[in-house]
Amino acid sequence: MVQWTKRIANLLRSDVARNGSTKVERPHYYYLGEGLALTKLRNGHFIYVDPLEESVCSHLIAHGDWEPWIYDVVMRLVRPGDHVVEVGGHVGFYTLGLANIVGPSGSVLTFEANPRLAALAMRTLRFNGYSPWARVVQKAVSDKAGKLQFMLSRQFGGGGHLYTGKKALGPDGELLEVEAVRLDDLKLKTIRLLRIDAEGSEALILGGAAKILAQPEIVVCMEWDLVQMRSRSNPADFVKSLTERGFHFWKITVKSELEPVTPEDMLTLKQCDVIVSRTYPFAEPSN
Question: Which regions of 127-265 does DSSP assign to beta strands (E)?
Answer without folding.
Answer: 134-137, 140-141, 146-152, 161-162, 174-181, 193-196, 219-224, 248-252, 258-261
